[in-house]
Amino acid sequence: MAKIIVVANQKGGVGKTTTSVNLSASLAIAERSVLLIDMDPQANATSGLGVDPRTLTRTVYDCLVKGAKTTEVVLPTNVPKLSLLPANADLVGAEVELVSIPNRERILKTALEDIRHQYDFLIVDCPPALGLLTINALVAASSVLIPVQCEYYAMEGLGRLMANVKRVQDSFNPALELEGILLTMYDSRNSLARQVAEEIRGHFKDTVYRSIIPRNVTLAEAPSYGRPVMLYNAASTGSQAYLELAKEFLNHGEKS
Amino acid sequence: MAKIIVVANQKGGVGKTTTSVNLSASLAIAERSVLLIDMDPQANATSGLGVDPRTLTRTVYDCLVKGAKTTEVVLPTNVPKLSLLPANADLVGAEVELVSIPNRERILKTALEDIRHQYDFLIVDCPPALGLLTINALVAASSVLIPVQCEYYAMEGLGRLMANVKRVQDSFNPALELEGILLTMYDSRNSLARQVAEEIRGHFKDTVYRSIIPRNVTLAEAPSYGRPVMLYNAASTGSQAYLELAKEFLNHGEKS
Ligand SMILES: Nc1ncnc2c1ncn2[C@@H]1O[C@H](COP(=O)(O)OP(=O)(O)OP(=O)(O)O)[C@@H](O)[C@H]1O
Ligand SMILES: Nc1ncnc2c1ncn2[C@@H]1O[C@H](COP(=O)(O)OP(=O)(O)OP(=O)(O)O)[C@@H](O)[C@H]1O
Ligand SMILES: [Mg+2]
Ligand SMILES: [Mg+2]
């Protein structure tokens, strides 16, 4: 399998990290072997799985810039069958350091060659930008999953993101597919969320997952305990929604 | 006066644009003359004030990279005494193009020389990153206002942001001050928000504004009408909160 799914959106705070962490954990719970790759200098996916970024001596930065083997940097997590290629603040430097390296868009793709076949899925969390870190992820990817908050600014940015995905397909990675668009932080009581969801479904049709992630406080609480939401409060609507998403993701053909 | 206030936080979705737009509008309503500068390629502040970024032939990008005069690019808005230096997607190119220009950190500061004295306040909205666009804003700034969502990941990133502000103070702009830390999207019913707010106040003491911005749907609805919240629903708690913030901001000495 060894499918690489990149979770990206240049709009900030739309649920990229929350989706990366909880989809990865849900897939691991469904007995798939998963590697979560944190490509964001904020290192939220790393701390969301209980690893303190400040204690790390080697991270994905070393694999990108210092030639370290990914197999030597990967860590186990508190979820069986889920491993982590962690990040820390060093990654900020990579944006600038990668600019002058030849083939700078393909550095992550090359770094993952020696490790990708050990996993069924590799999930990559991206920073809120379309810079070299996100480009590297899209060039390495089999597909891209786009979380979109059901709000105006997030919807507005979707067109630009799709144009950038197409540019990566045309110049670097013709095999890159759209895995799906995921509606997040959906509050059914609020008419703005309903309107935005309708507009996105109207426009992007069956590339939008049937599963919707509701606004649910357990999804915001779980990271402070360093756990995916299934290990924090498995019965919550947030946890159930990500488990549903994982089912739909695995049965790809079922997407609405 | 001609004070330049930068609204920055590398964490995505914490309310930088919402604060930039609504604080600027509140200050204009209080009879100050204000220029809002959109330094984010997403151009959310531009569309939040009713200007379609795709219709623009000249933006802040031209002032940074093509030497255009800011006075020729500034636009009026639907709020008296509030003007806008708009952005569009061209700004994505600036991150890479500025890298090779000498004095690349001071480009915005120089570009604003000829215009800053026409305004009491210049408010700069930043992208969710600590790249060259945000650095340019911090180097040009008199002070930095930091919105922080009352959630775990946003709190976690605060330390790194403060370290970066200090680095800009040490190397480029010793006069840069902290204007204040603003708690946003606060939901008093939710214990996580209360805990995070207490922790941030405990740590950052009286640099945290007394005014708190509640989670309020009118703040998310107003941008889809291209208006600051005061012109969309002046009586809402979201609108009242930003008017309160403007009062506290103007009476600087009153901060808790
Ligand atoms: N469905 C949800 N319900 C409630 N809170 C959520 C939900 N999804 C995410 N959150 C919270 O909202 C905030 C933003 O989510 P998250 O950090 O995952 O977004 P992001 O896109 O990764 O942000 P960034 O652009 O900074 O990387 C976080 O504090 C998170 O805990
Ligand atoms: N107090 C609030 N209550 C409810 N919704 C809010 C509030 N503040 C902001 N929002 C909404 O939350 C989303 C994120 O806010 P905003 O875009 O202002 O954050 P940002 O920090 O500028 O994001 P980015 O990192 O992408 O630039 C937007 O859809 C906005 O309309
Ligand atoms: Mg994130
Ligand atoms: Mg913004």
Q: What can you tell me about this protein's structure?
A:
Two copies of one chain form a homodimer. By secondary structure, chain A is of the alpha/beta class. Chain A is built from 13 helices and seven strands. The first copy, chain A, has a seven-stranded mixed β-sheet, sandwiched between helices. In chain A, helix 1 packs across helix 13. Chain A is globular and about 50 Å long. The two termini of chain A are 23 Å apart. At the A-B interface, helix 2, helix 5, helix 8 and helix 11 of A face helix 2, helix 5, helix 8 and helix 11 of B. The structure holds adenosine-5'-triphosphate (2 copies) and magnesium ion (MG) (2 copies). One adenosine-5'-triphosphate (ATP) sits at the interface of chains A and B.
Layout of secondary structure:
2 copies of one chain form a homodimer.
Chain A: E1 3-7, H1 16-29, E2 34-38, H2 44-48, H3 60-65, H4 70-73, E3 75-76, E4 82-85, H5 91-99, H6 107-112, E5 121-125, H7 132-140, E6 143-149, H8 152-156, H9 158-171, E7 177-184, H10 191-204, H11 217-221, H12 229-232, H13 237-250
Parallel strand pairs in A: 1-5, 1-6, 2-4, 2-5, 6-7
Antiparallel strand pairs in A: 3-4
Helix pairs in contact in A: 1-13
The structure holds adenosine-5'-triphosphate (2 copies) and magnesium ion (MG) (2 copies).
One adenosine-5'-triphosphate sits between chains B (12-18, 40, 44, 128, 184-185, 213, 215-216, 219-220, 223, 238) and A (11-13, 128, 151, 153).
